Amino acid sequence: MGILQIFTLLGALGMFLYGMNLMSSGLQKAAGDRLRGLLSAMISNPFKGVLTGLGITSVIQSSSATTVMVVSFVNAGLLTLAQAISVIMGANIGTTVTAWLVAWLGFKADISILAVPLMAVGFILSISKKDRRRNISELIIGFSLLFLGLSLMKNSVPDLQQTPEVLSFIRGWQGYGFGSVLIFLVFGTILTLVLQSSSATMALTLIMLNMGWIRFDMACAMVLGENIGTTITANIAAAVANTSARRSALAHTVFNLFGVVWALITFPFFLKLIGFITSGIFGVPNPAAADFAVEVAQGPDGAPVQTDSQTAALYGLSMLHTLFNTINTFILIWFIPAIEKLVCTIIKESKNKSEEVYRLKYISAGPLATPELATEQAFDEIIHFAQISRNGLEYARQAICETNTDKFEELRDKLVKYEEISDRIEYEIASFLNAVSAGDISQETSARIKAMYKIIGELESLGDSGETISRILSRRNIHKKSFDEAAVKHLEDMVAAVGNAYDAMISNLDAAHKGELAGISNAYNAEDRINNLRNYLRDAEIEEIESNRKNYQTSVYYMDIVNELEKMGDFIINISQTLEKAFAKK
Question: Based on the domain organization, do 274 and 394 belong to the same domain?
Answer without folding.
Answer: no
